[in-house]
Amino acid sequence: MIHRRSLLASSACAGLTALVPLHGLAQAAKKDTVTLALTLEPPMLDPTASAASSIAEITHYNIFETLTKINSDGSVSPLLAESWEVSSDLKTYTFRLRKDVKFQNGEPFNAAAVKFSFDRAAADKSTNKDKRTFANLSTKVADEHTVVLTNQEIDPDFLFMMGQATSIVVEPKSATTNASKPVGTGPYKLAAWAKGASVTLTAWPDYRSAQSIRIKRAVFRFIPDPAAQVAALLAGDVDAFPRVSPRSVPQFKANARFQVVVSNSRAKTILAINNARKPLSDIRVRRAIAAAIDRKAVIAGAADGYGVPIGSYYVPTAFGYVDTTGVNPFDLEKAKALMAETGIKTPLTLTMTLPPAPYARQGGELIAAQLAKIGIQLKLQNVEWAQWLSGTYTNKNYDLTIISHVEPFDLGNFAKPDYYWGYQSQEFNELFDKIKHTPRPADRARLLGDAQRLLAHDSVHGFLYTPQWVTVANKKLRGLWKDMPVFVNDLSALSWG
Question: Residue 47 region, left (φ>0) first, then alpha (ψ -120 to 50), else beta?
Answer without folding.
Answer: alpha
